[in-house]
Amino acid sequence: MSSLDPADWEAFRKQSHRMLDDAIDFISRVAQRPVWQPVPDEIKNAFAAPMPQEGRTLEAVHESFLHEILPYATGNIHPRFFGYVHGSGTPSGMLAEMLAATMNANLGGREHGAIYVERQVICWFADLFGFPRDASGLLVTGTSLANMIALLVARRAQLGPSIRTDGIDPARARLVAYASAASHGCISKALDMMGIGSAALRKIAVDTEYRMNVRALREAIAEDRAHGLTPFVVVGTAGTVDVGAIDDFAAIADVAEAEDVWFHVDGAFGALVALSEELRPLVAGIERADSIGFDFHKWLHVPYDAGCVLVRDSALHRDTFSASEPYLARLHRGLAGGEPWFCDYGPDLSRGFRALKVWFTVQQYGARALGDAVARNCAQAKHLADLVDAQPSLERLAPVPLNIVCFRYVVRSLDRAETNALNAQIVAELQESGVAAPSTTMIEGKLAIRVNLTNHRTQDTDLVLLVREIMNAPAVRKYSQEDALQLPPNA
Ligand SMILES: *Cc1c(COP(=O)(O)O)cnc(C)c1O
What we know:
41% of the residues lie in helices and 12% in strands. By secondary structure, the chain is of the alpha/beta class.
C-alpha cells in the first residue's frame, strides 16, 4: 500500500458524487446567496496553521472547504457581481476542469490528444479574428502574460536574434512602445519586466470617446525617431478597462504599416465582441494586427485561468522562445513526435490542459450563443445608462460604448474630494451588504461607481435593484432629496 490512490474506490466514488452534488447546489443557488462577504478573522487566523504531518479523510477536508473557503468567494459567479472585469464561469466549465485533471496532461509538447485540442482552439480564434490558419498561438494564464509574450515577439522582430543571447544594449537601440492613455497597466508592467522600463511606454492621449488619438500617435513616433529612439510596437486596446472603449484599429494599422512597427491588440475582453454578428464591426481592423492577446476567462466565461496570444508570423513567434535541449529532443515517431511543441512559443515548459475547458465551452454553447451573451451584456449596459440618466442625483461620467457604465452620486453641497469619498463609501456599503458588487475607478479625477457587465447571469431586474440600492445606500441617506444636484436630463 504505497500509492496515493484511494484504498477503497467505492468509498471514493460515493464521496466524489457528494462533492459534485454540493458544487452543483452551490452554483445553481448562487443568486440566493450574498454576492460577497468578508472572511471572518477566526477563519483567516486558522490559515496560519502549519503544514499537517498527518492527513485527514477526504470527507473531512471537503467539510473544511465547504465551511472555510467556499462561502468567502469573490462573488463573480453571482448575477450581481459587477466589479473589475470578471467572467462568471459555467457549470460545464467546472466539469471540464475536472476532466482535464483526470488526464493530468502536460501540454509543453509531445504527441498526445490534448495538443490537438489546444491547436484547434487556437485555430478557431485565429479564424474569428481574421488571422491566417497557420498563425501561431498559445493558451496562457491571462492577457497580462499574452500581451508580454506578444511584446517579446515584437522586440525579437525589431532587434533580431541577438536580443536572445546578448540582451538589451541601449547603445544599439533604445526601444519605445505606444498605447493609449487608457491602456491596461499590464502593458507598462510588461515593459518593466522586459528590462525596457515602463518609462519607454508613450501613453497617447485619448479623444472624448476614450479612443487613442491616432494623430497624436503619429506625432509621438516622429518625435521619438527625431530623438534617435526606436519605436517597436503600438498596442491598440479592444475594451479599455475604465469605460470599454475600442481603438480605431484600421487607422492604427495604417500607422504601424507606414512606420514599420509591430501592431499588437490587447483585446482582453473587448475582442470577444467578434462573436456577435451585430457587434463585430466594433473591432474592424483587428485582422490587420501582428498579434492579439485576449481572455477566455472574462467574456467567454471559461473558469479561471485561461487567456490566449495569437501571432500572425508563427516562425518569428517560435524564434522568440524555442531552445533545443537534448532531454527535449524531437523524434519523428513515438511520444517525442508531434507538432507543435507549445514550449517553443512561450516561457513555460510544463503547461496544463487549459484548452479543454475552452473547447467544452465552445462545443457546448456554440459561438452564436456565446456571442449573444456578449451582446446581451452590451444592451444591459445601455439600459443601465438610461436608468442612471433618469436619476437626477446620479451623474454619468463616461460614454457607454460597450459593457461598462461609470457614474457617481452627486450632492450639491459637497466638493470633489467629498463626493469621491461619498461614492467610495457607497460602493463599500454595497459590497459589504452582499446585495451587489460594483467596483470603482477614477474618471478625470472623479471617483466613479463602475459597473462592468461580463456576466451571463445578470438580469435587467438586477440592474434596477442596483440603482435602487445606490439611491437608498446608508451613505446617502443623510442628504435630503432637495440637496441632490439637479442635473439637466442626459447630462
Ligand atoms: C483584464 C485585462 C487585462 C489583463 O488580463 P488578465 O487576464 O487579468 O491577465 C489586460 N488588458 C485589459 C484591457 C483587461 O481588461
